[in-house]
Design goal:
Elements lengths: L6 H13 L11 E4 L11 E2 L6 E6 L2 E10 L3 E7 L25 E6 L8 E6 L3 E9 L15 H16 L5 E5 L4 E6 L11 E6 L9 E7 L4 E16 L3 E4 L5 E4 L2 E2 L3 E4 L26 E9 L6 E10 L1 H12 L5 H8 L4 H10 L4 E7 L2 E8 L8 E8 L7 E9 L3 E9 L7 E5 L3 E4 L17 E3 L5 E7 L7 E15 L9 H6 L5 H13 L17
Parallel strand pairs: 3-6
Antiparallel strand pairs: 1-8, 2-4, 3-4, 4-5, 5-7, 6-8, 9-10, 9-12, 11-29, 12-28, 13-25, 13-27, 13-29, 14-15, 16-24, 17-18, 18-23, 19-22, 19-24, 20-21, 20-23, 26-28
Helix pairs in contact: 1-2
Length: about 550
């Protein structure tokens, strides 16, 4: 079995997932509206639980609150109640809001196509009857996406509804904003997946949007979710280089110069599907590693190797899937009220033990090169979060390859990553000018100077333990000659802890399965297949009503 989404649906999902960036900031009192229209769904009803968003259903001129939302392949369901507080959003109102209207940024408006009577109590709506979803959020300075569901089939629309819900309820790593000259804009997430101190690590994030303002680069680290964030270091690495080249830092922080990237000759999945056109351009049409015959998905690429070339740089664009974020939440829920004690126990593991678990379960994106008849691991990339794609470079030693081709393999767990454009550069690295910058100053949202906490990795952390806490960091501008261009990177080090308050007894039988190395990949595929089936198909014979 191959990808279960049609080409049309997959293309739309690429566009949709690329545009979905749920970002909020407390810097100004303006809001944006994001629109959405045309659902259908996926299946196995899942609990959304209590979220910080306030859902409002509109039917003609009537509006009611919607709580305890669940979703299956055919219906959006929930508990209809009277509105508990004023609704501040209405069409055509100005985007500036007053202080007493601050709850507007927590509103999500669901509009039905046809008139339906809204009655208090449990109620369900066919997914195809959802005309539009408007998500109200703080203005971040970035363009706000519009979501229209009118051209989709049921399966794609269902996936989109799931994506929206994940975005509104997700957990994630620290958010990074940069000043692009017009204000702070969202750039990405840092040290993704480092949810315990024994997973603390370095992260080298490209900052393509950053521009100097009044002689300084400005970066903001923000805690916007239910987690405690601990940043041990936040420095900038500024690279001046030729205008005809690009520079990326590899996983270890070494600059790699990209001057002549070559497209692959072929890109084939384990199931034999040709992904060459999908990976030709950086356009968010992605390979989702979702072939359902395999728990671990792989993609094999063939490049023409220039004569006497002993070094290559694999260049690609990728990010984690929202599905992985959703899946990890489902796993955590299985611990019930024992979740926090389980996390405390895991914090006693060594760094090597945690890394081994990550690798066994396929969380990283691994890169292999074929030497003769054997696959050799080149490197693996840690998770980076689902909200922003990133450009990566992986240096590849080609000295053992005697053939005139380079065969590379990407591998990861089922639907854990999304891979966009891929190329390989065989040109040698050229000279670049590197400047490593310590913070000039750093101020948290309480007005405290935290500069010293971000200069080096020394165990003295910038602690952001409450939602809404931010820290703005400024660095001295590095001049760039007219004959050069500049690339800027954030070198961050840290970890974060999820705040969860699950209830109920742990599901011991289900959790025992995860002791098997690699089971998380199987769990992902099983959940995906269940999600694609209508709820009624999941009922066993014993569950069906007796016809007699």
């Amino acid at each position: 079995m191959k990808n279960l989404l049609s080409t049309q649906a997959r293309q739309f999902l690429v566009y949709f997932l690329a545009s979905l960036i749920l970002v909020q900031t407390t810097a100004c009192r303006y809001f944006n509206v994001r629109f959405a229209n045309d659902p259908s769904e996926i299946s196995t009803i899942f609990e959304l639980g209590d979220v910080y968003k306030y859902f409002i259903v509109h039917s003609d001129n009537n509006q009611m609150a919607l709580k305890d939302i669940t979703l299956d392949s055919l219906h959006l369901s929930g508990n209809i109640t009277q509105l508990e507080h004023p609704v501040y959003y209405e069409e055509y109102r100005p985007n500036r809001y007053r202080k007493h209207e601050k709850p507007i940024v927590h509103e999500v408006h669901i509009y039905l196509k046809d008139y339906s009577i809204l009655l208090e109590g449990e109620q369900q709506f066919p997914v195809e009857d959802v005309r539009e979803i408007r998500i109200i959020e703080q203005n971040t300075g970035k363009t706000v996406a519009s979501y229209v569901f009118s051209t989709l089939g049921i399966l794609a629309g269902a996936y989109i509804l799931l994506v929206i819900i994940i975005l509104l309820t997700k957990s994630s790593c620290p958010y990074i904003y940069v000043d692009d000259g017009d204000g702070f804009v969202f750039e990405g997430e840092t040290f993704g997946g480092a949810i315990m101190q024994n997973q603390q690590r370095d992260d080298y994030m490209p900052l393509p949007s950053i521009n100097p303002v009044d002689g300084t680069y400005r970066v903001m680290i923000s805690n916007e979710l239910k987690e405690r964030q601990y940043t041990d270091q936040a420095n900038l690495i500024v690279v001046n280089h030729g205008v005809s080249s690009e520079v990326l830092l590899d996983k270890h922080g070494s600059p790699q110069v990209i001057s002549n990237p070559q497209k692959p000759v072929s890109a084939i999945t384990l199931g034999g599907e040709d992904m060459w056109e999908v990976l030709e351009h950086k356009d968010r049409e992605v390979f989702m590693f979702n072939e359902t015959d395999y728990n671990k998905n792989e993609l094999i690429l063939n490049f023409e190797k220039p004569a006497d070339s002993n070094y290559g740089k694999l260049v690609f664009n990728a990010k984690n899937s929202l599905w992985l974020d959703y899946l990890f939440g489902k796993f955590n829920e299985k611990f019930g009220k024992r979740y926090n004690s389980w996390m405390e126990k895991r914090q006693q593991d060594t760094r090597e033990e945690r890394l081994q678990k990550e690798l066994e379960n396929g969380f990283p994106l691994s890169v292999h090169v074929k030497i003769g008849d054997e696959w050799k691991l080149v490197d693996y990339l840690h998770t980076v979060g689902p909200l922003a794609d990133r450009d990566f470079v992986v240096p590849v030693d080609l000295s053992e390859i005697e053939e005139d081709q380079v065969i590379v393999k990407f591998s990861t767990g089922f639907m854990f990553w999304e891979l966009d454009q891929v190329a390989m550069d065989f040109s040698p690295n050229t000279d670049v000018k590197i400047k490593r910058l310590l913070p000039l100053m750093a101020m948290n949202s309480d007005g405290k100077d935290v500069t010293s906490q971000l200069k080096t990795t020394d165990g003295d952390y910038l602690a952001q333990e409450m939602v809404g806490q931010t820290a703005e960091i400024r660095f001295a501008e590095v001049p760039v000659a007219a004959t050069e261009q500049q690339s800027v990177f954030l070198h961050a080090n840290g970890y974060y802890e999820l705040i969860r308050e699950y209830e109920g007894a742990p599901k011991i039988g289900e959790l025992t399965k995860f002791k098997t190395p690699g089971y998380f990949m199987e769990f992902s595929k099983e959940e995906y297949l269940k999600f694609l089936k209508p709820k009624d198909e999941l009922l066993s014979a014993e569950d069906l009503p007796n016809a007699n």
